[in-house]
Amino acid sequence: MKFSNQQDIDVPIAYVYRRVTNFAAYERQALRQGAHVVRVDGDGPVGVGATWDVAFTFRNKDRQLRAQVTELVAPDGLVVMTHAKGLTSETRLSLVALAQQTTRVQVQVVLVANSMSARLLLQSLKLAKTNLNNRFRKRVREQLKTIALDYERGR
C-alpha cells in the first residue's frame, strides 16, 4: 500500500532539509505522545544506519517498531525504513529546489505486509484508503505549514 503527497513551500531547501532531518525533535514529539524511544546506535550525529527502537500503545495494544535511516543525502532528502511485527514501511522524503526561496517536498510511504495478520491489516486499510490519503495529505500540509511559519519567524 502506498501513500504519497507533493507540496511546494516558500522556504529555502537548506532550511527545509535541516527541519526534516531534526531527529531529536521527532524523538521529543514521540516521547510527548507517550512512546518510549531508544536510540540503538548510540549518541552522536544522525547518519545512514542511525536506528531507534520505539515502543508505544495503539488501540489498547503494546506495539514495537525499529526505525532506521537508510539514505541521507543533503539537501535532497532521506529514506527511513521501519520494521514492526509483520509490517515493513519505507518513508521517502525528497526535496527539490524550485527557486531560491521555494522547495518542492515529496513524501512517499510504502507499506509491505510480511505476515498474514499484517496482510489482513493492509486489506482493511485499503477499504479506507480515500480517508487515509486525505489524513496523510493534511498531516503533511500541517508539518510544512509549521516549517514555513518557523522560517518566517526567523527560527
How many β-strands, per DSSP? 7
CATH superfamily caption:
START domain
CATH topology: Alpha-D-Glucose-1,6-Bisphosphate, Chain A, domain 4
- Please write the CATH class name: Alpha Beta
Which strand order does the major sheet show?
Answer: 1-7-6-5-4-3-2
Radius of gyration: 16 Å
Structural class: alpha+beta
The shape is globular
Question: Which labels suit this protein?
Answer:
155 residues, alpha+beta, Alpha-D-Glucose-1,6-Bisphosphate, Chain A, domain 4, seven-stranded antiparallel sheet, 4 helices, globular
Q: How would you portray this structure in words?
A:
- This protein is an alpha+beta fold and 155 residues long.
- The chain has one domain (2-153): 2-Layer Sandwich (Alpha-D-Glucose-1,6-Bisphosphate, Chain A, domain 4), CATH 3.30.530.
- 35% of the residues lie in helices and 43% in strands.
- It has helices spanning 13-20, 23-32, 116-127, 129-153; strands spanning 2-9, 36-39, 51-58, 61-73, 77-84, 87-99, 102-113.
- A seven-stranded antiparallel sheet has the order 1-7-6-5-4-3-2.
- Strand 3 and strand 4 (61-73) form a beta hairpin.
- It is globular, with a radius of gyration of 16 Å.
- The model has no long low-confidence stretch (mean pLDDT 95).
Q: How would you sum up this structure in a few lines?
A:
The protein is an alpha+beta fold and 155 residues long. It has four helices and seven strands, in the order βααββββββαα.
Topology of helices and strands:
Elements: E1 2-9, H1 13-20, H2 23-32, E2 36-39, E3 51-58, E4 61-73, E5 77-84, E6 87-99, E7 102-113, H3 116-127, H4 129-153
